[in-house]
User: Fold this.
Amino acid sequence: MTIASITQLICFAALSITLVVGALGVVLLPNIVYSAFLLCGVFLSVAGLYLLLNASFVAAAQVLVYVGAVNVLILFAIMLVNKKEDLAEIPRLALRRLLSGGVCLGLFLLLLRVDLTTPWAVPGPVGIGEGATIRIGEHLFSDYLLPFELASVLLLMSMIGAIVLARRDVFGSDLITGEDVDQGLIEKVRPPLLLDPTTPSPSALQETL
Amino acid sequence: MPIETPIDVPLQAYLVLAAVLFCTGVWGLINSRNAVRVLMSIELMLNAVNINLMAFSSYIDGLEIRGQVFAIFVITVAAAEAAVGLAILLSLYRNRETVDMERFNLLRW
Assistant:
């Protein structure tokens, strides 16, 4: 065993322990904010695993997209919707947890058996190491060109969809016919938080919209 | 230029790790009461799939690394999914005033 391989083993062990503990924390911790920060740790350790697999470009993309965008988005969503609420008790919660735990354990055993008994075709060809980024670029602009363009269309669609779904400036009347829109379908009428609640009543504010 | 890199961690180690991560995600997806945690569990499952793709592309398909290209597409779709999912969650929260999954039963018989 060379020093390089020992270092690799140690890095893999440390990253996988971080990954598993972080994932369990994401699922099990009662406070959702801790879960979000642990999710950041999970994403970072997955990026470390990619570095161990000689994929520096995908590791960078993982850090930029997951840690930089998705995790921040989740934190913002937690800030916007995190209201302390007492969850109503649901019957047979323990049984439900036990059953789903059994199903997940069965799935894990199945995957484990497949992983360990399949004769994988290793070792494959020697990897191209740091030439991976160049090869990804060649793939994206030759044989994966259509999925690449479709991905850009998908991102545009999801951006527009997210804006349409999450915006709150709904119109009080239909733009074309001028009739009143049933606001109850779109959004509940609520008193604005920052204004003085005594002077403009919510219904009067609704009229001005 | 091909670089000879010693790979001593077996492929199976990555696969088992991804299986653990995926099953954790499935359990969280089923059992979470908070809708944000459901989205986080989905991200965990997508990451598990990505680990599998990257491990196969590095060990078996070292020259043509198609798995890495697939992983990039999965990351893209995951980002889009997170954005739309959180937007749906926000508008649900405005209407129902809760993030409890058990109370999102507007369309349930």
User: Anything to note?
Assistant: The helical segments of chain A are 3-28, 32-52, 56-81, 93-117, 132-140, 145-166, 183-186, 202-208. Residues 3-28 of chain A form the longest helix (26 residues). Residues 140 and 148 of chain A are 6 Å apart (CA to CA).
